[in-house]
Write a structure and sequence with these properties.
It is an enzyme of class 2 (transferase). By secondary structure, this protein is an alpha/beta fold. It is built from 11 helices and 9 strands. The two termini are about 10 Å apart.
Length: about 300
């Protein structure tokens, strides 16, 4: 990724760079031994303001498989910007570490980390974007479809950070991506406009609608929890709003959907049924595995020398 020293959002990438990362992720998955020394002698701080299973485990194990050393930091040292400024945090960490992976509450924290760091910063989730998840998603789709530009991908549920990364990444790849969300819960309008501009440039298409029938004839459907991490709203309180967007076998059959994705954690029988999640159309656990390979592609591209 020439001229890139951090990855905060997929819209930092051009089409060649994004396809190159997906190709590298596939190579790392197929021949991990070829990359077992890629980060030898390197230490990467993995900072978590939010709880995590897939992100923490895949970065920790992934860095180890590349020959590097992961240093996990949580909130025991105090909230970012409270005990000490983000500037001072970054200025200290970059004297020791070779990279920072940050899962944070606010995108502004990432911007400050990048501003005051002289090592790569990788966004492992913030309020606006989830680029590492998006890369794993597109890698998983690419394993099942030879030409990403011909794939139709539909996201169902609340417009959120995952939706934003799917829209931006899909647009760069020339895909048709639909965000099907209840009225009032659509993705950020500015990010949608960015995705539409990228789609126009690359021959893709962006659809934002509350109509579940808009996914007729799509290839892949994507689910996420109905309540974003950090929101303490009970799922039962939003059930009536989102139940029409549930991914179930009838919906799959009615719309001719071939594959299903979900970034997890999944609330079975709410946003997705167990019949679908455990069924033959599910590539959800391939998707979870690919978090590590996609992230390792980013680490190799930004940190390995």
């Amino acid at each position: 990724m020439s001229q890139l020293n951090s990855l905060l959002s997929l819209n930092q990438l051009n089409q060649d760079q994004l396809l190159g990362l997906l190709e590298l992720a596939a190579k790392i998955k197929q021949k991990p031994q070829d990359y077992s020394q890629a980060l030898v002698g390197k230490s990467v701080v993995t900072l978590f303001e939010k709880q995590s299973l897939r992100t923490r485990v895949t970065f920790d194990i992934g860095i180890n498989r590349l020959g590097g050393h992961a240093v996990y930091l949580d909130q025991q040292n105090g909230a970012m910007g409270v005990r000490e400024t983000v500037k001072d945090f970054a200025s200290n960490i970059t004297r020791w570490a070779d990279g920072i992976v940050a899962r944070v509450n606010s995108h502004k924290t990432l911007l400050e980390l990048r501003e005051y760091s002289n090592v790569p910063v990788i966004n492992s989730l913030c309020d606006l974007y989830h680029p590492c998840q998006g890369l794993a998603d597109f890698q998983t789709i690419a394993e099942n479809y030879s030409d990403l530009s011909k794939v139709k991908l539909a996201y169902l549920g609340e417009g959120n950070n995952v939706t934003h990364s799917l829209l931006l990444g899909g647009a760069i790849l020339g895909m048709e991506v639909a965000a099907i969300c209840p009225k009032g819960y659509s993705p950020d309008a500015q990010i949608v406009q960015q995705a539409q501009a990228l789609a126009a440039k690359h021959g893709g298409k962006i659809i934002v609608s509350d109509d579940i029938n808009a996914i007729k004839g799509f290839d892949v459907v994507y689910g996420d929890t109905w309540v974003s991490m950090g929101d303490d709203t009970p799922l039962e309180a939003v059930k009536s709003r989102y139940m029409p967007y549930q991914i179930n076998q009838q919906m799959m059959n009615d719309n001719g959907i071939s594959h299903v994705l979900h970034c997890q954690p999944a609330h079975r029988e709410l946003e997705i049924t167990s019949e679908v999640m455990d069924g033959p159309s599910s590539i959800i656990f391939d998707q979870a595995e690919n978090r590590m390979h996609a992230q390792n592609a980013v680490l190799v591209s930004l940190i390995a020398k």
